[in-house]
Amino acid sequence: MTAVEETSETAEQARFRAEAHAWLEANAPRRRHDSSEFKRRVAATSAEDEQAHVAASKAWQRRLFDAGFAGVSVPREYSGRGDSPALDRVWRQEVVRYEIDIGVFSVALGMVLPTILAHGTEDQKRRFIPPMLRGDELWCQLFSEPGAGSDLAGLTTRAERDGDEWVVNGQKVWNSFAHFADWGILLARTDWDVPKHRGITYFLVDMRSAGVEPRPLRQITGVAHFNETFLTDVRIPADQVVGDVNGGWGVAQTTLMNERALIGGASPLGFHDYVELARHHGRTTDPEIRQALAATYTRYQILRWLGQRAQAAAKAGRPLGPESSVAKLVISDHSARNGDLALAIEGAAGMLAGRDAFEDGFWQQQFLGQWGVRIGGGTEQVQRNILGERVLGLPPEPRPDKTEPFRSVPKNA
Ligand SMILES: Cc1cc2nc3c(=O)[nH]c(=O)nc-3n(C[C@H](O)[C@H](O)[C@H](O)COP(=O)(O)OP(=O)(O)OC[C@H]3O[C@@H](n4cnc5c(N)ncnc54)[C@H](O)[C@@H]3O)c2cc1C
User: How many angstroms does the Cα of residue 365 sit away from the middle of ligand 1?
Assistant: First the structure.
């Protein structure tokens, strides 16, 4: 029995787990908790390293596709395996134990794919899902704007209809992988005379279209993971609208809920990585470090149980709801504490950076990267608002802009 195997597993799940396990053992290196090589790759900050990382991710996605493990629960007519979401979970439990880094596909597979499956036309499903699964096309998310992040529905990028096309103008920001992406999911305002949530449309945009200009932004970690993206007279064919015109807010909810769940389950690190770090630095007998390691172990267990709770909801046919906000919030806290712990373990050596630091600064990046995890996909404060209002039934924030036509809502200049 593998470490992650559930005792209540069905015969079908056990059979699939054995099949996935056998393929992974034969084809991929196991993730070792003392594996510096893997961490060095993840910590790479040069443009060449980033290109190499994307190329390696594409190659891995292709191998998974050829072996029949890409899109385990995606219907066969869209090139998936056509199995149940339960088998998809089994796959994710198994694959995480190997050094397969397909993180650049997280937007495509974790957010765009479920949105197109839920709201796309038949043509959109057939056109866009197979190349994602094959690793041929990378996707990015063009939602946030300089004046619209937490208040995403306040976005001002505009799309105007011109014959069979829409013409888009505006600016997006914090767009992960946009500089490598082939396609983007885009929210733009298509009606200014209705309240803000009701005048937004959801588009699929070819990132090679004239007028799309992503400019990479280098983060505090040294990695240029995301971009600001300028959109000038970008023409999008009308059949690349997902859902109804002005119905984009509802479609975006599917993307955002999947994004929170994705971030909630994203970290490649496990408890044993921190134990190994403490061993390497000779800190396993330090009582404060031991105490912090015990707390880390406890948080990993809590996260595991939260994951099981979400799985139980999915099994019972309930859509993802506030569970994703709880998971996102717990992951934020976990990420902050683990970042702090890593540098506490390193002690004075924690002040080093880049190639001078242990494992090329991977742990310093975990520390600095904690704010990305805590902000991306909805900040901690916003998740608390969602939980307060939707779970605890607390009075909602006063929001007069919810009912006024967007055109007359006061905005920053
Ligand atoms: C690593 C990373 C990757 C990202 N990738 C993408 C991407 O690929 N595509 C994309 O479109 N976006 C992306 N984002 C953007 C992300 O969704 C936004 O940063 C996030 O929604 C917060 O918006 P903001 O940065 O504009 O902050 P703001 O909304 O301006 O918030 C500033 C501060 O005010 C607080 N605040 C705001 N409103 C409230 C409120 N109502 N109640 C209490 N406090 C409040 C916030 O919690 C925060 O502390 C990414 C962000 C990060 C960090």
Answer: 20
Question: By alpha-carbon position, which residue is closest to atom 50 of ligand 1?
Answer: 376
Q: Which residues pair with 229 in a beta bridge?
A: 172, 214
> Exactly one of 137, 145, 228, 259 is catalytic; which is it?
259
Residue owning the nearest CA to atom 35 of ligand 1: 381
Kindly give the distance from the C-alpha atom of residue 326 to the centroid of ligand 1, in angstroms, as a whole number: 17
Cα–Cα separations (whole angstroms), residue 330 to 253, 306, 325, 363: 21, 9, 9, 20
Verify whether ligand 1 is closer than 6 Å to residue 147 (CB atom): no
Secondary structure class of 324 (helix, strand, coil): helix
**Ligand 1 centre distance from Cα of residue 35 (Å):** 33
**pTM across the whole model:** 0.92
Structure tokens at 223: 């990695």
Rounded distance between C-alpha atoms, residue 30 and residue 134, angstroms: 23
Distance of CA 367 to the CA centre of its chain: 19
Residues in the chain, total: 413
- Residue 399's pLDDT band (boundaries 50, 70, 90)? confident
In single-letter form, the type of residue at position 174 comes to: W
Phi, psi angle pair for 215, to nearest 5°: -120, 115
Task: Give the span between the Cα atoms of 361 and 349, in whole angstroms.
Answer: 10
- Indicate the helix (H) or strand (E) that contains 304: helix 287-315
In this predicted structure, the answer to whether residue 58 has a pLDDT above a threshold of 90 is yes
3-state secondary structure of 336: helix
DSSP state at residue 258: H
User: Does ligand 1 come within 6 angstroms of the Cβ of 363?
Assistant: no
Tens of pLDDT, residue by residue over 177-221, are 999 999 999 999 999 999 999 999 999 999 999 999 999 998 887
Ligand 1 center–CA 369 separation, angstroms: 15
Q: Cite the beta strand spans of 80-157 per DSSP E.
A: 139-142
Q: Catalytic residue at 259?
A: yes
Rounded to whole angstroms, how far apart are CA atoms 44 and 387?
Answer: 37
pLDDT tens readout for residues 210-269: 999 999 998 887 888 889 999 999 999 999 999 999 999 999 999 998 887 777 555 668
